[in-house]
From TrEMBL:
InterPro entries reported for this sequence: ArsR-like_HTH (IPR011991), AsnC-type_HTH_dom (IPR000485), Dimeric_a/b-barrel (IPR011008), Tscrpt_reg_AsnC-like (IPR019888), Tscrpt_reg_AsnC/Lrp_C (IPR019887), WH-like_DNA-bd_sf (IPR036388), WH_DNA-bd_sf (IPR036390)
UniProt protein name: Leucine-responsive regulatory protein
Gene: lrp_4
Keywords: DNA-binding, Transcription, Transcription regulation
PANTHER family referenced in this protein's UniProt entry, alphabetically: LEUCINE-RESPONSIVE REGULATORY PROTEIN (PTHR30154), TRANSCRIPTIONAL REGULATOR AZLB (PTHR30154:SF34)
CDD domains in UniProt: HTH_ARSR
Native source organism of the sequence: Pacificibacter marinus
Length: 152
């Protein structure tokens, strides 16, 4: 991946609706080589898709939280299946440290969050303990991976 690829990726991260003509103009190139580069990045799995970013609050989700989950190791497959099927779990990561998993959730309000954690997630297979941290405000979101790659 060269600097042109990274510049293309940075542009697409910022606005995935840019046309090949706009991408080409920004790089001082013609559309065909830009199209070939983008297609190559897609085929290599660097670009995994294009999506609209939605604002949780505008969608009625006024609360965000991170939930650390400790579980019985032998239940990890069943737990991961339950997580994958649950629509309210935004993200899930297997982690090292005190917890086995870190979940990111969105809820409408505190009652909704409480129900989601105590009545649903805490009852997933193998869950021994959860610890919740509620987000009060977001400082940084949507960091550019292309910009990070340029610094490394």
């Amino acid at each position: 991946m060269d600097q042109v690829d990274l510049a293309l990726l940075k542009s697409l991260e910022h606005n995935a609706r840019l046309s090949f003509a706009e991408l080409a103009d920004a790089q001082g190139m013609s559309k065909t080589p830009i199209w070939k580069r983008v297609k190559a990045l897609e085929e290599a799995g660097v670009i995994t898709g294009y999506e609209a970013r939605l604002a949780p609050k505008a969608m009625g989700f006024g609360l965000s939280a991170f939930v650390e989950v400790v579980l019985d190791f032998e239940s990890s497959d069943a737990f991961e299946t339950a997580v994958a099927r649950h629509p309210s779990i935004w993200r899930c990561h297997a982690t090292t440290g005190d917890a086995d998993y870190l979940l990111q959730l969105f809820a409408r309000d505190m009652d909704d969050m409480d129900k989601l954690i105590r009545a649903e997630i805490a009852r997933f297979p193998g869950v021994r303990r959860t610890s919740t941290t509620v987000v009060t405000r977001s400082i940084k979101e949507n960091q550019s991976l292309a910009a990070l790659a340029q610094t490394r």
